Amino acid sequence: MITSTAASHPFSLCGLVLLLAILLQSVFVAVTYIYFTNELKQLRETYARSNIACLTGEDVGDLFRPSAFEDGYEKNDPCWEIKSHLHILIRKIVLKNYKFENAAKAKVTPQFAVYQKEDYPTGVIAAHVTGDSRKALPPENTFLKNYNGEKIQGWKSHRSPSFLSNVEMENGELIIRKSGFYYIYSQTYFRQRFNRGTEEKKGKQLVQQIYKVTSYPEPLLLMKNAKTTCWSKEADYGLHSIYQGGVFKLNENDRIFVTVSDINMIDMDENATFLGAFLVV
């Protein structure tokens, strides 16, 4: 009986040791799991914060500095790789959209219409047409003749500094497409040439007038400006300019044109002879 109890005692001790080892191992695994889980969580949070920091504050401006990535002098920056990839992605998207929009415009619109839409917002209603010194003045259109002076028709409208934005031009007349109050202006550049040896150079009256064409049978005079010149006896030619402008109520399809007292004296320099209008309200 005593022998049986002594034999079972070592087995009980071994079982206790084994159970204790299992418990210690379980505690170790649990502690290790909790520790590494917490460390991984902190690493993920730190990584996320660092990525956001790369794209916030003053760092965002670096995305639009090509030299910061192409020259490579910021490669030691931990944010460099993130910003570099994002910079490349942004450039690809912008270039793709730009090419797509330009291809669509070139396909469905005339060349001069593309020029207007690219340079001027669609809501702008304005026009500035200038003289073209490279072209001779065309003959006057006699279809509409109940006005004083000679009508200027040789305007340039689709080449800088000239432009048309939601305003059209035909036969030297600006065509209004939206009713409202417009500021209308015009300047003409008179050049009187002389031959040397003439005994007398008389004064000459220079007149500029701005007319409006409506549904009324005759054009309506909006503005008139005149001056009488006294040419120098020593000069080979005389130069004078007349400018006038004002605000007027215009209706849809009204037309604006300019007449002068002597069209042969007009110098069609684009910076000196011009006509324009823009919507005020």
Q: How many independent structural domains?
A: 2
Mean pLDDT: 76
- Count the DSSP helices: 4
The separation of the N and C termini measures 120 Å
Which CATH class of the largest domain? Mainly Beta
How does CATH name the architecture of the largest domain?
Answer: Sandwich
Low-confidence residue ranges: 57-64, 66-74, 108-118
- Biggest sheet features: 6 strands, antiparallel
Give the H and E element order: HHHHEEEEEEEEEEEE
Q: Looking at the structure, what is the overall shape? A: rod-shaped
Structural class: alpha+beta
Radius of gyration: 42 Å
Predict the CATH topology of the largest domain.
Jelly Rolls
Helix content: 25-40%
Q: How many beta strands in the DSSP annotation?
A: 12
Tell me the fraction of residues in β-strands, as a range.
25-35%
Family: Belongs to the tumor necrosis factor family.
Domain THD: 125-280
Binding site for Zn(2+): 230
Subcellular location: Cell membrane; Secreted
Account of the protein in words:
This protein is of the alpha+beta class and 281 residues long. The protein has two domains: 64-108, no CATH class; 111-279, Jelly Rolls (Sandwich), CATH 2.60.120. Helix content is 34%, strand content 29%. The chain has four helices and twelve strands, in the order ααααββββββββββββ. Strands 1, 3, 4, 7, 10 and 12 form a six-stranded antiparallel beta sheet that branches. The longest helix has 53 residues, at 2-54. It is rod-shaped. It is a single-pass type II membrane protein. This is Tumor necrosis factor ligand superfamily member 10. Keywords: Apoptosis, Cell membrane, Cytokine, Membrane, Metal-binding, Phosphoprotein, Secreted, Signal-anchor, Transmembrane, Transmembrane helix, Zinc.
